[in-house]
Design a protein that fits this description.
With about 425 residues, the chain is an all-alpha fold. About 70% of the residues lie in helices and about 0% in strands. The chain has 16 helices and no strands.
């Protein structure tokens, strides 16, 4: 059975023992979320299948210890106790969230900072799944089975299938886009930037599809690059002033970056990841400059930091990035708040830490935003502009509140098992 044909995630894991109840609850929680994913679909299914297999393997050794009437089964006891300890820590520290994976891999029209943050989040989130699949190849899981599954190889195969789908979606959206060569402002008669980019993207997809499974790092950067090439397309709006994104400068840079990415995508390419990152930095600089940002370097720094922020703060964080496009004086304080929000809270070790962390971040973010308000309102029409900006911040805070509500609900439903584990 292929990964795409895998059975729907089951919610009926067989009953176990008190020591395995927390694992069972955590797996069932992720099963429910993964079933609604719209990206990382194949890799999440593969990981879920692996978890189910490991859970069954643990129970098999626990059954062996519990039902034997002969000598103590020390081998089974050692294997299941070591695996349970590692598996609990693994499941409790995963950084997968429905709010991130419940949307497609295709960027939508938005502020340039939001789109680039979306792309960076995609790369980081994809890496989380790859690492989660590799973790299942550890010896304390393999020792549960006579014939262990090659989890790492299966993870590489699964993530490649997800990447191929993302490449297809991006290629199809670019190929069918209505933008034409004549729409580019300042273009010359011989310029064929849009046509060239569309043709190069088709070639990139064709070459990337030939990459082997183990070249998943290169494949991930290629998908990221196509998202970047997609920016001038997705930001174009017919009958709307978009000269900044339809300029010859932007499209010349997009054309160049597309050709460079085509070289990077070749299975026999000697273009290094470092050189590809340099090429992306040049193209990104053109995009940021064309959008008229006075503080290109500073905003770029904030976007990179925003990609590391934990999900309980992501709504407000993206709004603050937009606020900083209008004001740079509070950059240091904003960077400090983002770094604090990038620190995970060990919610299960001490539930009170959740309230303390959220309260501290509420105070910190509110302080920065109030100071931004004062600065922006000093300028002509600043009050009206602030009202529009602040409404976005409030929406972000509402999104964060919903994330926290969902997490509190999960913690509450899992608390009996956490208490039980602490007592063992």
């Amino acid at each position: 059975m292929s990964l795409q044909q895998a059975l729907p995630p089951p919610v009926n894991l067989k009953p176990g023992y008190p020591a395995s109840e927390l694992i069972k609850a955590l797996i069932e929680r992720y099963y429910r979320d993964f079933a609604r994913y719209r990206r990382n679909v194949c890799i999440s299914q593969m990981i879920l299948q692996g978890w189910h297999s490991i859970y069954d393997g643990i129970l098999s050794h626990m059954d062996n210890v519990a039902t034997t009437s002969k000598e103590p089964q020390w081998d089974s006891f050692t294997k299941h106790t070591l695996a349970i300890t590692q598996f609990e820590g693994y499941l409790l520290n995963l950084d997968f969230h429905l709010s991130v994976n419940g949307v497609p891999s295709l960027p939508v029209n938005d502020e340039i900072s939001v789109i680039i943050t979306f792309m960076t989040n995609w790369v980081n989130n994809r890496r989380n799944f790859i690492d989660a699949g590799k973790e299942l190849d550890k010896s304390y899981y393999k020792d549960l089975f006579k014939d262990p599954r090659p989890f790492q190889l299966q993870a590489e195969q699964a993530v490649r299938q997800d990447d191929i789908q993302a490449l297809k979606d991006l290629n199809d959206s670019i190929a069918s886009h209505e933008l034409q060569d004549c729409d580019i402002t300042g273009s010359q008669a011989t310029d064929k930037f849009v046509s060239n980019v569309k043709a190069t993207v088709r070639s990139i997809r064709s070459k990337a599809n030939k990459l082997s499974n183990e070249k998943h790092d290169r494949m991930g950067r290629i998908v990221f690059a196509l998202m970047a090439i997609y920016i001038p397309f997705v930001c174009h709006q017919p009958n709307t002033p978009t000269a900044h994104i339809n300029s010859r400068n932007v499209w010349s840079a997009a054309d160049t970056f597309a050709v460079q990415t085509e070289q990077f995508a070749s299975p026999n390419s000697n273009l290094t990841l470092e050189k590809h990152e340099e090429n992306w930095a040049i193209y990104r600089h053109v995009l940021m400059t064309q959008f008229g940002s006075e503080y290109i370097i500073q905003i770029d720094t904030l976007m990179n930091l925003a990609a590391q922020v934990r999900w309980q703060y992501i709504g407000r964080t993206l709004s603050v990035v937009l606020l900083n496009e209008d004001i740079n004086r509070l950059l240091d304080d904003t960077v400090s708040e983002f770094k604090k929000a990038a620190t995970e809270v060990n919610f299960f070790a001490d539930p009170r830490s959740l309230d303390a962390a959220l309260a501290a971040r509420d105070i910190g973010y509110s302080s920065v935003v109030r100071r931004m308000e004062a600065e922006i309102k000093k300028h002509p029409s600043g009050a009206q502009k602030w009202d529009n900006l602040y409404s976005g911040y409030q929406k972000g805070a509402e999104d964060d509140a919903e994330h926290v509500r969902q997490f509190r609900q999960f913690v509450a439903s899992s608390s009996p098992f956490i208490t039980l584990k602490a007592a063992l």
